[in-house]
Amino acid sequence: MATIKGNAREAILLAAREAAMARGYGGINFRDLATTVGIKAASINYYFANKALLGEAVARRYWEDIARDLEAISEKAKSPAEALRQYPGIFRASLERGNRMCLSSFMAAEHDGLPAPVLKEVQAFADVNVAWLSRQLAAAGLGDAESVGARAHAIYGAVAGAQILARSRSDVSVFDALIESYRKAGPLPS
Fold it and tell me: What is the pTM of this model?
């Protein structure tokens, strides 16, 4: 029984993540999730008493997964500069999956309608990205302790913005062109 419950909880989290990446926090609907998972809508309340708790869990899991992905990039890259070159690929991958968008970017745009615990987890995603970028920039010798933080914020904002523009056009090549321009003249190292 514990395995079934654990699987249902994970299935709900995954379905909610997909919904949020396609439609934001407002797109998380218990009835739709229940249909996707194959359970009754009321059964979701067994795992998550309300939408805010589900949204918080989804956003937390999202930044935890991205933190692991970033560390994997760090470990596999030949250098910090190579890790920085791979960074936009995380955002590109969402676009390649049905023109999805970063869950945290989508939810951040819904700032005023988010419960405080959900917003906290959304902000943690940005913090995780900026901290990782700062470490990579410093390790690559691309600034001192003070300047890498500002550049990391610029990179995060630029890449997330490129994703938004590409999604609005349903065209990954828009993302690629923007990332290339950032490498030539913007915040991303070439």
Answer: 0.91
Q: What is the chain's Cα-based Rg?
A: 18
Q: What is the phi/psi pair of residue 114, to 5°? A: -90, 140
pLDDT tens-digit profile of 94-106? Answer: 999 999 988 888 8
Residue 25, pLDDT score: 95
| Separation of CA 113 from chain center | 19
Quote the pLDDT of residue 146.
Answer: 83
For residue 46, the number of C-alpha atoms closer than 13 Å in the C-beta half-sphere is 13
Minimum mean pLDDT among 3-12, 13-22, 144-153, 159-168: which range? 3-12
* 111 contact partners, CB below 8 Å, separation of at least 6: 119
CB crowding 60-78: b at 16 or more within 10 Å, else e: bbbbeebbeebeebbeebe
> Alpha-carbon distance 76 to 149, whole Å?
23
Q: Which of 101, 81, 119, 73 is nearest to 159 (CA)?
A: 101
